[in-house]
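re: ur question from earlier - yeah i can do the single chain one, its not a big deal. heres the input i used so u can compare w yours
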Amino acid sequence: MNRNIDRLRSSPIGTLVPTEKDQLAFLPHNLPRTIELPANLVYLLDQATRSVASLNTALAWLPNANPHLLMRPFMRREAVLSSQIEGTQTTLEEVILFEASENQQRATPDLIEVMNYVRALDFGLRRMEHLPLSKRLTNELHRELMTGARSYDRRPGEIRTEQVFIGGAGTTIDLARFIPPPASFVEGLLDDWEAFINADIVMPPLIQVALMHYQFETIHPYRDGNGRVGRLLIILFLAAKLLLDRPLLYLSAYFERNKQRYFDHLFDLSITGNWLPWIDFFLTGVIEESRDVLDRSQRLRELFTGYRQVLREKNETANALSLLEELFARPVITAPAAAKAIGVTPAAGRRILERLQDAGVVRVERDQWPHYFVASEVYRVFTAPTSASI
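and the output i got, formated as tokens:
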């Protein structure tokens, strides 16, 4: 018998039920609609709430003509880090260069998974204009995430109909670290999960999202991709609750830095039923990543203000200023892509980029055709490791 089963037997938030091969699976109870926080977590919640609120003020400098300026690179950074938690090796640099490539060379399986995550995130943000967070939306996210990926044969967008288990490569169910509920329970568990996230309850949204994430990962409703979908749902929940004017707060960087603690907290919660250590861990991540976004935003603001001043002193055109904005969304770009972005001819786009090169905004990489123009300082802000901590 798996030794972890004994640790789960007395869980106050779930029960063990029989599953295949004489094993026992963990069946979580429905989510609580109230939770009492001790003074230290009330204080941490206040810090986290203030940190999130401060992002709206910090991002007020973004040009009105391009209010989603920073979403593109931050979304790609989130996609890379969330996928790395699951073992992919693709870097943000590789993603940026892949998207800048005109010929879109053959993508590696890892890169496909990352780009699918980007597509699923963008899809989810747009889909929520017409559909609330729900089982239906979750299935649609899973379809976007998994279609064409290595696990293409795992019925993307469909709730699992078989038992799954969590363990290392080659692990058998009797040695699994954790066995989620049998498939026959999944729909009912998701019904309560959906009711919880849409309920009008007296629970701070940052606490609600922490509970939501645990429950989704514990249910494990799909054969594959559960972790990535679960982290996507954090972003969508924060957007749905309008905690941010722009969805720029992502927790995968924090989870990746603390990957073993992340997994351990989720598992220990199932054992003890004590929500408080998990909530503490989650809120700490919100604070750290909020500060990280603030730090990167401040550096980007300084760069943008400085570059714009240089271009104005040079009496540069409105098209050049528009392209400057575009470089903060795509710090690696080709002349044809730049021309398309600002609505000019390819020749005009190249001339503007060459003037930006003379002004010190970009450098040119000539190792392929079309040449890459790289806004190096902007690029470094997004690819630098996280420095914020509490």
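Residues 80 and 91 are 6 Å apart (CA to CA). not sure if urs matches, ping me
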